[in-house]
Specification:
The protein is an all-alpha fold and 288 residues long. The protein has ten helices and no strands. The chain has helices at 2-26, 33-62, 69-102, 107-110, 113-141, 156-161, 167-201, 206-236, 243-267, 270-287. The two termini are 34 Å apart. The mean pLDDT is 79.
């Protein structure tokens, strides 16, 4: 039953995010910074679920939960890279909405293609560095011989909890990383939305306010879902040792979030919804 459930969630997640990428790339009207970042986010979500779910499906089929030390570190590294990339992209998208709403006349000039590509590359570099930092810390503090991880993948927070050294060092490392990597992104999102709210409240008509807020609703929903579960697992694991709660939260932001992202963005976005419907109709006509 678990195999069928997670296989279905994986296929729906990959298919949904692929449709987002296809829709953005096929329609010239969607060749804007907002949809460019959305397509990169969809690609990152595909990579994120592909890092954990296929290995779990193999384990369910083979009735074996064993993984090599190199395999565990590789999975953990890519998992952190794609998770951090998600966070960075959500921050970049918040900045994009801030510029679009607060500086609409200068939006094409500020969010030019060069800046958009640079922001994506910067996000990738920061994500790669964080992944390497976690792997280095895991190698320094954890003995991987006969290590049992109470999760369905090599969760970095669980690996650090199983460290052979003092837990105080783990907690310090965890909070330092959360401050260095988490605080700037959260602060950037909060600042962007603070500026957006202040700008929208100055719009005289209620219709104009609704139109401005509607462009941020999808992004804000994804931010709340991802950050709420991710931060809860990463920081809460230092306080509570409930393996069941950590595993459930891990499923939320590694499987459920990439699964629901395409639905959130497509159902709340009229332009993207119309392109997706057109693509599906075209596919149905080709089958006939």
């Amino acid at each position: 039953m678990l195999f069928g459930l997670f296989l279905s969630m994986y296929l729906i997640s990959v298919l949904g995010n692929l449709l987002i990428i296809l829709a953005v790339s096929s329609d010239p009207h969607l060749h804007t910074p907002m949809y460019f970042f959305l397509s990169i986010l969809s690609l990152d979500d595909i990579c994120l679920v592909s890092t954990t779910i296929p290995k779990m499906l193999m384990n369910l089929q083979s009735h074996s939960r064993a993984i090599s030390c190199a395999g565990c570190l590789t999975q953990m590294c890519f998992y952190i890279i794609f998770c951090c990339m998600d966070v960075m992209l959500l921050t970049v998208m918040a900045y994009d909405r801030f510029v679009a709403i607060c500086h609409p006349l200068n939006y094409p000039l500020i969010m030019n293609p060069r800046l958009c590509v640079s922001l994506v590359l910067l996000s990738l570099v920061v994500s790669f560095l964080e992944g390497q930092l976690h792997v280095w810390m895991a190698l320094q503090m954890t003995d991987f011989k006969e290590l049992e991880i109470p999760n369905f993948f090599c969760d970095p927070s669980q690996i650090l909890n199983l460290s052979c050294r003092a837990t105080f060092s783990n907690d310090v490392f965890r909070y330092v990383v959360a401050i260095i990597y988490g605080f700037p992104t959260i602060f950037g999102i909060l600042l962007s939305y603070y500026k957006i709210i202040c700008s929208v409240l100055r719009i005289p008509s209620s219709r104009g306010k609704y139109k401005a807020f509607s462009t941020c609703g999808s992004h804000l929903s994804v931010v709340c879902l991802f950050f709420g579960t991710a931060l809860g697992v990463y920081v809460g694991s230092a306080v509570s040792h409930s393996h069941r709660g950590s595993a459930v939260s891990s499923v939320m932001y590694t499987v459920v979030t990439p699964l629901v992202n395409p639905f959130i963005y497509s159902l709340r976005n009229r332009d993207l919804k119309s392109v997706l419907i057109r693509l599906l109709k075209r596919g149905a006509d080709i089958r006939r």
